[in-house]
Amino acid sequence: MLESLYLNLGQHDALSKNEKALLADAMSVEKYFVTGEDIVVEGSRPTVSTLIVDGLAARYKVLEDGGRQFTSLQVAGDFVDLHAFLLKTMDHGIMALSPCHVVVAEHSKLRAITEQAPHLTRLLWLDTLVDGAIHREWIVAMGRRSKTSHLAHLICELFVRLQVVKKTQDMSFHLPLSQAELADVLGLSVVHMNRVIGTLRRMNVINWVNHTITILDWPRLVGIAEFDPTYLSMSNEPR
Amino acid sequence: MLESLYLNLGQHDALSKNEKALLADAMSVEKYFVTGEDIVVEGSRPTVSTLIVDGLAARYKVLEDGGRQFTSLQVAGDFVDLHAFLLKTMDHGIMALSPCHVVVAEHSKLRAITEQAPHLTRLLWLDTLVDGAIHREWIVAMGRRSKTSHLAHLICELFVRLQVVKKTQDMSFHLPLSQAELADVLGLSVVHMNRVIGTLRRMNVINWVNHTITILDWPRLVGIAEFDPTYLSMSNEPR
DNA sequence: CGTCGGGTTGAGTCCATTCAACTTCGGTGG
DNA sequence: CCACCGAAGTTGAATGGACTCAACCCGACG
C-alpha cells in the first residue's frame, strides 16, 4: 500500500528497511473519499496527515466572489497535508478530484520520527520542499508564460511526477479533471481553457480523450513549455 | 545580529536559550551584497544557507524570451535558500533588491542540528512550510484576484511580515522596489503596474512615495485584498 | 426519449499589453 | 550654479488577449 510513497521519497535518496518500517508503522488507518469530497477542510486543525495511495486530489482556496483556485495537484505517493503537521491550522481545503484511497498518519507518530529518525525526517522535510518548488514553478507559469505554454508545462510536470510512481502507460496518463476544474488550476475562464486545450490539440502535440492525455510529441511539448525538471529534484543523492 | 531570525522563528513557538546558541553557532560568516547582485545563482549547488540580517531579496526565474518572474520576496529574518540544504541544486536565482547584509550557515551545521535538535529542526522545517504557504497565497492572487486586489494583498502581507521583525514604522514601511520589479512580482507589464498602483492611490488607501508605503486605511485595504493572515501561521504554540 | 453535465463555438466587451511620448527627479560634470 | 543625462514614473492610443454571454452539440443515464 505504501509502494508509491517509497517510490516518491526513495527517488531523492535511499530509504532503509528500518525507515520503511517506521513509515509503515506510522501509516495505518485507510480511508476512502468520493469525487468532490473534502479530504481536509479549510480552517480545521488536523491531528493526522494524509497520504494518497490512489487517486487525484487538490489543494484549493475559494474567494468571496465564488472564484476558486487550485494551488496544487496531488497524486499517488503524495502527502496532501504533511505541512499541517507543523502549520497546525489549514489555511486552505483539500478536495478529492477522483475517488481517493488514502492512508493517514497520526501527528504523534510523525513527531516521534522527528525525534528519533533524522534522515527520514529530512526526507519528509524534502517532500514538502519539492511541494514548494512546484508552487514556485506554478507562479512563474501564471505570471510570465503564455496560457498555452502554461498548460504544456503542467502536462509535462504531471507526466514526470506520475512516471515516478508508475502511473503512466507509455506516453499517456489518466487525468480525471473537467475543463472547468482545469480552468481553476490555470486561473482562467472555462471558455478560454477550452480554446487553449484546442490549440495544443491542433498543434498535434497531445491527444486528450476520455480524461486520458497522450503525449504525441514530447520534445515539442517540452519546447512549448520550456520545461526543465530540475525543480522536481529527481536526482538520487545523500540528503 | 540574529535578532530578526529569533523573532521570525520565535513567533511560531518558544525558542530556548540552547536553541538560540545552536543557531548562533551555525551562523557565523557575514557577507554583503549590493543591489542587483545575485546572492545565489541558478543551477549552483550551495554548501551554505543564507539568512538576511538586513535588506530585501527575491527568488526569481528568467524565461527564454527574457521575461522575469519573482517567486518570493525575502525580508530580514528570512532564510533565502534554506530549501537548498535538502534540494541541493538551485532551480532559481536569488537576487538582492537592496543592499543586503546576510549571514551564512554551513549545511554541515544545519545537518548537525537535524541530528541533535529535533525541536529546532521542526522550527526550521516550519519556516520553509510558511514559505510554501506564501507561495500558495501568491498562486491564488495571480489566478483569481483582480490586479488591484493582488497588489493590496501583497502590501498587507509585507506589512504583517515586516511587523514581526520590527521593520515597520507606525503604518508605513520601506519597500525599495521599482515599479518594473514590482511588475515582475505580480506578473504584469510596467505600464499596467503603474495604473494599478494609481488606482490604489486614488482610492486613498495607501500613500507611496520615495519607496515608502504608508497604509492610510488598513480595514479597507484588507477588504480589497480579502486578506486573511492565517496562512502566515503567526500563532505561538507547541510545534 | 428527454434531461443534464460537459464540451465546443461565435460575438461583443473589457482588460492588459505594446509602443511611444513626455515628465520628474537626483546625480554628475562643465 | 546650472545644464545635461539617465533612470524611473506617468500618460495616451491602438492592438490583441481573455472574459462574459449565449447558443448549440453530444454522450451518459434515468
Q: Tell me the total number of β-strands of chain A.
A: 11
Classified in CATH, the superfamily of the largest domain in chain A is: Jelly Rolls
**Second rung of CATH, namely the architecture of the largest domain in chain A:** Sandwich
Give the biggest beta sheet of chain A.
4 strands, antiparallel
CATH topology of the largest domain in chain A: Jelly Rolls
Tell me the overall shape of chain A: globular
Looking at the chains present, what oligomeric state does this protein adopt? homodimer
Structural class determined from secondary elements of chain A: alpha+beta
Report strand order across the widest sheet of chain A. 2-6-4-5
Our Rg estimate of chain A from Cα atoms comes to 18 Å
Largest interface: A-B, 51 and 51 residues
- End-to-end distance of chain A: 25 Å
Please state roughly what percent of the residues of chain A sit in beta strands, choosing from under 5%, 5-15%, 15-25%, 25-35%, 35-45% or over 45%.
15-25%
- Quick one: CATH class of the largest domain in chain A? Mainly Beta
Low-confidence stretches of chain A: none
Helical fraction of chain A: 40-55%
What is the residue-averaged pLDDT of chain A? 96
Please report the number of helical segments of chain A.
9
Query: In total, how many domains does the architecture of chain A comprise?
Result: 2
- Topology order of chain A in helix (H) and strand (E) letters: HHEEEEEHEEHHHEEHHEEH
